[in-house]
Amino acid sequence: MFKYLYLDDLKVDQKYRGKHIGSRLIKAALNEAHQLKLQGVYTIAQDNNLSACLFYLKNSFEIGGFNNRDYRGTAQEGKADIYFYRDCK
């Protein structure tokens, strides 16, 4: 029913950042989504993680949603999730 592959917890070790590894991982995920005949890839980043949000925007993701209730009643209350989507091309 849902036509997007979920990219869960993409992280690149700090010493390897700036070498386009994250972008290559996204490209691999898009290729996998395409092979599975899915619409594209989506992921979630916390609103206070500016570097992750900017990374996804730089890699042609679009904001598709915002959830400010995920963390209610938890130690992370006040944070929110931003949903990022990128279609296969």
Automatic annotation (TrEMBL):
Residues 1-89 form the N-acetyltransferase domain. InterPro entries: Acyl_CoA_acyltransferase (IPR016181), GNAT_dom (IPR000182). It comes from the Bacteria. It holds the Pfam family Acetyltransf_1. This is Acetyltransferase (GNAT) family protein. The lineage of its organism: Bacteria, Bacillati, Bacillota, Bacilli, Lactobacillales.
